[in-house]
Amino acid sequence: MGKYVFQPTNVDKLKADYDVIIVGSGSTGLVTAIQAYELGLKPVILEKMDKLGGNSTRASSGMNAAETETQLKHHIIDSFKAFYNDTFIGGDKQNNSEMLDYFTSHSALSVDWLADHGIDLDDLTITGGMHTKRTHRPSSGAPIGAFLVTNFLKIIEKDEIPVFNNIDVDKILKVDNKVTGVHVKLSDGTRKDIHAKAVVLATGGFGASKEIIGKYRSDLTHYRTTNQPGATGDGLKLATDAGAGLVDMDKIQVHPTVQQDNDHAFLIGEAVRGEGAILVDQRGHRFVNELDTRKNVTAAINQLPEQSAYLILNQGIRNHVGAINFYDSIGLVIHGDSISDLAKNVNVDADELISTLDKWNQAVNVKHDAEFNRTTGMDRDISAGPYFAIHIAPAVHYTMGGIKVNAKTQVLNADNQLVQGLFAGGEVAGGLHGDNRIGGNSIAETVIFGRQAGQQVFKYIEDK
After folding, report:
1. Residue 99: C-alpha distances to residues 88, 217, 405 (Å)
2. Catalytic one among 134, 294, 318, 451?
3. For a Cys-Cys bond, which of 52, 103, 227, 300 suits 25, CB 3.0-4.6 Å?
């Protein structure tokens, strides 16, 4: 079976009027469009890049949710409160509590909504900062982002929702303080106004903008980024020009495990550690609880002399993370039939690495990590070959700050007044994650708040 290819709508079909304009074709934008359409609205998606899907296509670990059927089938008892607490503590208790409450209590409903659309997340893993397996993913092990985007595009194709690429939205239109549409520039240079009763910004973060990062966090500009080139924060300017406030702009996440020895930076998903991999330094020693928060694992790597480390895993772990086959296919994975082989190939002392793995395997066996107090991602040891290593170092990954919104995805100004007719969700909206995002929460956010945006736009239009 060939790979599914979605054909964006031909630009000559662009109309002058829609019910709702959605800016951005990542997971948030696609979910918003599907939800709005199912409520009887006529949505349109406008994407500035040639390629659809935004940063969502790079997400690999899964979607966090609590109190789901999938968890019960795996004999895992979870609660919204536990999910809330892990995210709140992970965010250094700086999260917007209203958004976080909505997020955690609507996560299971969103997994059900996906299942209702034939999208089954029937397997589980765990990410850093979580105490329970609640990272939902397909049992095929396919990376979550591309899996969801592909499935959403199939629904959008079936529903004939128009999706235009290479269209640059450069202004939000307002009349009498209400949003009435957008001004766009087409690839041939043509400019036009498109009218709508509401606009949803789903434009992603600013992780690929050295300029915005430099403005708020000049200490991070030396890092490379895991973001696709379109993640330049355009939605922030659109929103602020329309009167929106911004929050948490200095809260920028650096992801600890990124392979960046070549031209491209490839995020090595947290599921690799969640399924049992460990991190070692150039001496072959562990140096951190690998499933601590991203912030803490990054800090530990940055304290090493080389400011980089190796993920160590074996075939047993690889069998549970489909993404490793992709990493290997592009040359990011180092092989070794034995631990000594692997040690030689990564230039680490073989005796030290053997000793480290012996100690780790014993810790897994007794479910007690005396060295770093790791309690999760210990379902399998690293005792049988073949063995693999991936060289990693931190890189800019996610921007927790963004447009000021409430839990209804309604955009607010600096004084917490509504910007009438303007909504925002996903990474472009700030506040949910606090000072550190937990792995698996960004994809969850796109589905939960994408649905919310579609519902709230419907309500806004109905009430007018």
Report:
1. 11, 25, 9
2. 294
3. 52
